[in-house]
Design brief:
It is a single chain. The chain is mostly helical. It has one domain (2-420): Growth Hormone, Chain: A, CATH 1.20.1250.20. 80% of the residues lie in helices and 0% in strands. The radius of gyration is 20 Å and the shape is globular.
């Protein structure tokens, strides 16, 4: 139940925040911004605002709710509020109606949505990983992690369907309907989480009176090195993730593909990525540990960056989708053991805060990935800029993985399980 509730939460958030920002920019610039040029750049600002908000939310909500009141209690509130704020973007007044207040309201809503979504990774991952034995965490963790990809997959098809249905009216009313669909998975997840149980680890901690008064203080006092290396990993990985999954639609529009084709293509890429994260989790059990599989998958990904980028960027629609589906598959494998790794890295006393902040702090730089690609492209060209930054941040990720300690091995006995420490 815990894993299912966590995965549904990821699905509810999925990629709606990132993808909806891009949809708003591409189709609603005339409504929210004074001119198209402004709207064309709001995706970059939206990603950055969301990344910053998620980091603040993970620290705040993890500290005051997740590690003090319980993982379940926090997650019921977070999915409720970020679903509401995600849907509220569809009710924003236009620039013609309220002037500059319109984009101000957009970024305010994006910040609030990101703030509550920030606790989702730390709380959801902790809820799932604390509910299952160590030997099952790689695969179950990959199942939980795949909620993001599943959400993006569904959203992409919903976008394509609404774009086809509304046609030219999408920029008038279709985009509002698109945002409103966030309420559906959100409502389902709230109900599921309301009937799920708190983790046995937190219940025992509460019974023994081990709940920290200020969890965030213990986090930075007792695990600064672990946090630093974890942020290196997530900074590199989430930069790469934004520079691929979130950048694919931009490149597709640049190449002249239709809105429906972009939606279908992104959906296919995300569908393939789901098999990558699941297979990565299953293979992780064979390889052993959490760090070792991530290191192997990351090396394979780095070696494949140039040939895949060259093939996909220079090809037509079918080649583009096929090539970047392979890239998405390999990238998703890296994420597969991350939930188990981060959960075992931090003490149960500040786990929700630590996991959430380690993940979301890494997304801050990633929020500027697309703007950095475009900025550098004015000097060396778009393909070269994309390639250089992908490799550079892949190396940052590799350094973080190499410096981190392994958190679990098959040979360890039950009492050595770091999840109960």
């Amino acid at each position: 139940m815990g894993a299912s509730a966590s995965r549904l939460g990821r699905l509810a958030y999925g990629r709606l925040h990132l993808y909806s920002v891009r949809s708003c920019c591409a189709h609603d610039s005339a409504h929210i911004f004074p001119c198209f040029a402004w709207g064309d750049r709001c995706d970059v600002c939206g990603l950055a605002v969301g990344a910053l908000a998620r980091s603040i939310g993970s620290l705040t909500l993890g500290n005051f709710l997740g590690d003090k009141m319980g993982r379940k209690s926090m997650l019921v509130l977070t999915v409720l509020f970020f679903s509401i704020f995600a849907a509220l973007k569809g009710a924003l007044p236009s620039y013609k109606q309220v002037g500059l207040l319109s984009p101000v309201l957009l970024y305010t809503v994006l910040f609030l949505e990101g703030f509550f979504a920030g606790a989702e990774y730390g709380g959801g991952t902790t809820l799932a990983m604390e509910s299952i034995p160590a030997e099952k965490r790689n695969f179950i963790g990959s199942f939980v992690q795949s909620g993001f990809g599943t959400g993006y997959f569904i959203v992409s098809f919903v976008y394509a369907a609404l774009k086809a249905y509304f046609g030219s009216s999408f920029s008038v009313v279709g985009w509002r309907v698109f945002f409103a669909t966030a309420l559906v998975p959100g409502a389902i997840t709230v109900l599921l989480r309301a009937v799920s149980k708190e983790t046995p680890v937190f219940e025992e901690m509460k019974t023994r009176g081990e709940v920290e008064r200020i969890p965030v203080r213990g986090l930075f006092k007792q695990a600064p090195k672990a946090m630093l290396f974890a942020i290196l990993i997530t900074t590199g990985l989430l930069f790469v993730n934004t520079a691929t999954f979130s950048f694919y639609p931009s490149v597709m529009f640049t190449k002249g593909f239709s809105g429906v084709s972009v939606g279908v293509g992104v959906a296919v890429i995300n569908l393939v990525s789901l098999f990558g994260v699941w297979i990565g989790g299953a293979l992780g059990n064979v390889i052993g540990g959490r760090k070792r599989p991530m290191l192997i998958y990351s090396l394979i990904f780095v070696l494949s960056v140039y040939p895949i980028l060259k093939l996909g960027y220079s090809g037509g629609y079918t080649t583009f989708v096929s090539a970047f589906s392979v890239q998405a598959f390999l990238e998703a494998m890296i994420f597969s053991t991350l939930p188990a790794f981060l959960s075992e890295l931090f003490s149960k006393r500040f786990r929700a805060t630590g996991v959430g902040f380690a993940y979301n702090a890494g997304a801050i730089v990633g929020g500027f990935a697309i703007s950095l690609i475009y900025a550098l492209s004015s000097v060396i060209g778009l393909f070269e800029s994309w390639l250089l930054l992908l490799i550079a941040f892949s190396l940052v990720m590799l350094v973080g993985i190499a410096l981190s300690s392994e958190t679990w091995r098959k040979t360890e006995v039950a009492h050595a399980d770091k999840i109960v420490e």
